[in-house]
């Protein structure tokens, strides 16, 4: 059995593939974090929208 059956280029391709996969998982995790943060802020944004609509109604801008 030959221990050096894999060439350096093949090992570098494997490492490159793993690093790309790791970076993609980090990006997806960040996007999910941002999305969850927006969903957590949704009640506050709805309340703010209601206040703006009431103020616009009272000032006859609607």
What does this structure look like?
InterPro entries: DUF7554. Keywords: Membrane, Transmembrane, Transmembrane helix. The chain crosses the membrane at residues 12-32, 38-58. The mean pLDDT is 88. It contains two helices and no strands. The protein is mainly α and 62 residues long. The protein has one domain (9-58). The radius of gyration is 26 Å and the shape is rod-shaped. It has helices at 8-40, 42-58. 81% of the residues lie in helices and 0% in strands.
Short description:
The protein is an all-alpha fold and 62 residues long.
What is the string of SSEs from the N terminus onward? Answer: HH
Overall geometry comes to rod-shaped
N-to-C terminal Cα separation, in Å?
Answer: 81 Å
Number of domains: 1
Low-confidence sequence ranges: none
Which range best describes the helical content: under 10%, 10-25%, 25-40%, 40-55%, 55-70% or over 70%?
A: over 70%
Tell me the structural class: mainly alpha
Number of helices: 2
The Cα radius of gyration reads 26 Å
Beta fraction = under 5%
Report the mean per-residue pLDDT as an integer: 88
Largest sheet: none
Task: Please give the number of β-strands.
Answer: 0
């Amino acid at each position: 059995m030959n221990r050096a059956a894999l060439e350096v280029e093949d090992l570098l391709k494997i490492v490159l593939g793993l690093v790309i996969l790791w970076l993609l998982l980090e990006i997806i995790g960040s996007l999910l974090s941002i999305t969850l943060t927006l969903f957590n802020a949704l009640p506050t944004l709805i309340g703010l929208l209601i206040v703006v609509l009431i103020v616009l109604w009272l000032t006859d801008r609607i």
